[in-house]
Structures are given as C-alpha cells and as structure tokens.
Specification:
Blueprint: H1 2-15, H2 20-33, H3 38-50, H4 54-68, H5 74-83, H6 87-96, H7 104-120, H8 124-130, H9 145-158, H10 162-175, H11 183-216
Helix pairs in contact: 1-2, 2-3, 3-4, 4-5, 5-6, 5-7, 6-7, 7-8, 7-9, 8-9, 9-10, 10-11
C-alpha cells in the first residue's frame, strides 16, 4: 500500500506543471488510501493550491496544520483565504501566527500575502509600508528577494507611484536569476505608459496653443 501511495504522490508532483488536473486526481487517490498520513494530505493541499482549487487546498492544509502542529504552510493557507474573498481572515492568520518560529522564506511569503490582503481592503498605503524593512534593499539577493521586490512594486503601482514601481520592478528583474517573474516586462510597460501620457500631454498642449493663436488672429 505504501508503495502505491508513494507512486501516486510522485506522479502528482511530476504532473503539477503540465497537467494539474491529472496531478490532482493522483493526489486524491493517495489521500483515499492514506488519509491519516500528513505528507499525503500536504501533497493534496499543495497540488490543489497550484491548480486553483482554493477550498480544497484550504481544507487539506488546515488538516496538516492540525496534524503536525506546525505553520509551515501558513502563507499558502492565508493566500487561499484571500483567493476565496476573505482578506480579513488572511490578515487574522498573519497576525496570530508567531512569525519568529517561521522559516525566513515563509515569513516573506506571509508578508506578501498580508500586503495583498490589505490592498484588497483598500488599505493601499498600509500595504506598501508593510513590505518595507531590512529585506527590501536593491542589493539583496536572497531566494525570496525577487518576489519581495516584485510585490512591493506591484503595490506601488496600486498606490499610483509609477516611477518608484518601475525602479522596483527593475530591481526584481535583476534579482530574478531564474526568470520566475515578468518584472522586466512590467517595468517596460509602465515606462511606456508614462511616455504615452507625456506625448498626449504635449499634443494637447500644442493643440491648445494653436487654438489660442487662431483665436488671437
């Protein structure tokens, strides 16, 4: 039985990127055979999350949290709450957990999720401020730096601070050695938007000046 369950878990892991629905079926089969094994519930929760099945991901990862009494997946749990339209619950989770006991990567992910939840609630300035700190330095090259820089830039866009956002998207692109984000494209798009706005303003100003000159004549 253990060997069969193991094979289905391996299959789920191998298919998650190419065929998430098939991966989900393999993980569900494994759960049906070994529902009391934390690693099986964890696998199903993570596959469900990657597949966008937020409710199932939340149910499984909550179960893992109870079974293991750890908060290893608290950021994913909070993000699933946010995806289900419950940003307040996501913030509650971020506040109640002892972040000092979390791995650094999980701390950063939870901060990113909490910032997103604040933005969902219209607390945009608070979302920006919440991501500021020692880890938000352009020269940082930690495994989480690119995602943190990207999230910060994204919240700057929401706050209407486009010039700063361009700079931080570029910082994210430089830190993103694995090309996991579209930070460079976001920076270019924002820069082009500003140029288009400037060009339109110039055209409007020129048109107004011509209208004034014609009136004076």
């Amino acid at each position: 039985m253990a060997e069969t369950v193991g094979k289905h878990l391996v299959a789920a892991g191998g298919l998650i990127d190419s065929d998430p629905e098939a991966a989900l079926e393999h993980a569900k089969y494994a759960k049906a055979k070994a529902s009391r094994v934390p690693i099986v519930r964890e696998a199903l929760g993570l596959v469900a999350y990657q597949s966008g099945n937020w409710s199932e991901a939340l149910s499984e990862l909550r179960a893992v949290r109870r079974m293991t009494r750890t908060d290893d997946h608290i950021a994913i749990i909070a993000d699933a709450e946010r995806a289900l339209g419950r940003p307040e619950r996501a913030l509650d989770l971020a506040k109640e957990v002892d972040t000092a006991k979390l791995a650094k990567a999980t701390q950063i992910e939870l901060a990113i999720v909490a910032a997103g939840a604040r933005r969902d609630l219209g607390q945009i300035d608070a979302a920006v401020v919440s991501l500021q700190g020692d880890d938000l330095k352009p020269e940082k090259r930690d495994p989480w730096s690119a995602r943190l820089f990207y999230a910060y830039a994204d919240n700057l866009v929401a706050a209407g601070r486009k010039e700063e956002a361009v700079r931080w998207f570029l910082n994210a692109a430089e830190a993103d050695a694995e090309d996991e984000t579209d930070a460079a494209e976001r920076a270019a798009d924002l820069a082009n938007e500003d140029k288009d706005t400037e060009n339109k303003d110039t055209e409007n100003k020129d048109a107004e000046e011509k209208d004034t000159e014609a009136t004076d004549e």
